[in-house]
Amino acid sequence: MKKVMTPRERVAATLNFEEPDRVPICIGSSGASVNDAVYFQLKEYFQIEGDVEPFRSGHGDNIYDPRVFDKLGGDFRHVFLKSNQDYKAATTEDGGRINEWGVKVIRVGKFNEWMSHPLQYATLEDLDTYAWPKPYEGNRDRDLKADIDYWYKETDFAISTRSPSRGFWDLGIQLRGFDQFAMDMILNKPFVHKMMEKILEVLLAYYDVLLSTVGPYVQIVETQDDLAHQNAPFMSPDAYKEFMMPYRKELNAFIKSKAPQAKIYQHCCGSVRKLIPYMIESGIEVLNPIQPLAKEMDTGKLKRDFGKDIVFFGGIDLQERLAGPPEMVEQEVKERIRDLAPGGGYILSPANVVQPDVPIENLILLCELAREYGQYPLDIEKLK
User: Fold this and answer.
1) Residue 207 DSSP SS3
2) 367, 25 Cβ separation under 8 angstroms
3) What percent of the chain clears pLDDT 90, i.e. is strictly above it?
4) Global pTM?
5) Which of 54, 197, 217, 302 could form a disulfide with 62 if both were Cys (CB 3.0 to 4.6 A apart)?
6) Strands 220-224 and 286-288, sheet pairing
7) The pairing of beta strand 286-288 with beta strand 311-316
């Protein structure tokens, strides 16, 4: 009889492309969490009392409550940098707030939208005087030592540290505006490179503060950058290699220097297949969220072509199946395990933040089915 592994052992085997006792399950990572509205539904469903302070603001998923994840039965727990306690966000007449990057964020229904681009008309020289975030200020690592000590020493969960910031492309389009930033990549290349250098300085500082405390203890270090939409990447592979890859390589190398045992995870939505070889070359070891309905994201083909070089994390469709009837949820779980789990290298998770159109019963069912069908050795006949 195969040994029942601890969550930490299970994830370690998976990250090393070995078959554990079952496929690991994660809810709560960057791009694999739950919208705050879903969290409150789950909290009510499980009759969980008492409030949990949001770990951040200005996003759709600001609350992380381990009690909910205990009920769902995931294998991971996460540690975070806190917000800058000295930063007082300015507010605008329309109810928006200015975040630390200088971007106005406004709540629209249950979601947040970025409504300004503070560097849209900036010159090269303006980049030197811009008020960039200051990661070393604001006591962002408060409680971080106590958190990592508890999860590492007192539990057997796998530990991942969530991304402290968005990435190069995301921040570029927020600061500059999508159209302007896209044109810059053709008409104003020096500006793009200098802005990427400035963003890199901030990201290096964020990860320095974070990993100086938790680096030796985590199995995954998360980063994020949404480089694609439903049908294609936002840029050509050549543009990615020119404008993103040098800075991504430097960031990944720094992360490895602080957490050499950990795998580097990148959250990147959409049809990203054309960029995967270059992401691997840059040092990305775990790819999330594997959006299966996006173009060229057939999970069987992805496993065949890249399954020896990168761990797949996610894959459970949110666009149709997880919001559909229970039989669609079951079909989805079976397909993704069948495609992605053979030989290890697959962590099952929703293919992005779970939104309010997903019934919480389906999310609970997802975790139950993952435990049922994800047992190794896989029963391929049962998964058909």
Assistant:
1) helix
2) yes
3) 89
4) 0.96
5) 54
6) unpaired
7) parallel
Range of the domain at 265: 7-86+120-383
Mapping DSSP to helix (H, G, I), strand (E, B) and coil, where does residue 288 land? strand
pLDDT band at 58 (very low <50, low <70, confident <90, very high): confident
* For residue 208, pLDDT beyond 70: yes
Q: Tokens in use for 57?
A: 């603001």
Cis peptide before 292 (omega within 30 of 0): no
Alpha-helix runs per DSSP H in the chain: 7-15, 36-45, 66-72, 126-129, 144-153, 168-176, 178-187, 189-214, 237-239, 245-258, 276-282, 299-306, 326-340, 360-373, 380-383
Q: How far apart are CA 141 and CA 327, in angstroms?
A: 44
The predicted-structure confidence for 298-341, as pLDDT tens digits, reads as follows 999 999 999 999 999 999 999 999 999 999 999 999 999 999 99
d(CA 368, CA 364): 6
Range name among 55-69, 179-193, 313-327 with the lowest pLDDT average = 55-69
Decide if 268 contacts 310 (C-beta within 8 A): no
- CATH of residue 322's domain is 3.20.20.210
Q: What is the C-alpha separation between 374 and 316, in angstroms, rounded?
A: 13
Q: Are 35 and 356 in contact (CB under 8 A)?
A: yes
Q: How many domains does the chain have?
A: 1
Q: Buried (b) or exposed (e) across 72-93, using 16+ Cβ within 10 A? A: bebbbbbbbbbbbeeeeeeeee
Residue 250 domain-assigned (yes or no): yes
Whether the per-residue pLDDT at 130 is higher than 80: the answer is: yes
How far is Cα 380 from Cα 384, in angstroms, rounded to an integer? Answer: 6
In a domain, 111, yes or no: no
Which residues lie below 8 Å from residue 112, measured CB to CB, with a gap of 6+? 58, 59, 60, 105, 106
Q: What's residue 253's pLDDT?
A: 98
Domain assignment of residue 113, yes or no:
no
The answer to whether residue 371 sits within a structural domain is yes
What does the CA dihedral 42, 43, 48, 49 come to, rounded to 10 degrees? -170
1 pLDDT higher than 60: no
Instruction: Judge contact between 290 and 349, C-beta under 8 A.
Output: no
CA distances from 114 to 29, 349, 355 (A): 22, 27, 18
Q: So what's the pLDDT on residue 110? A: 66
Tell me the pLDDT band of 260, cut-offs 50, 70 and 90: very high
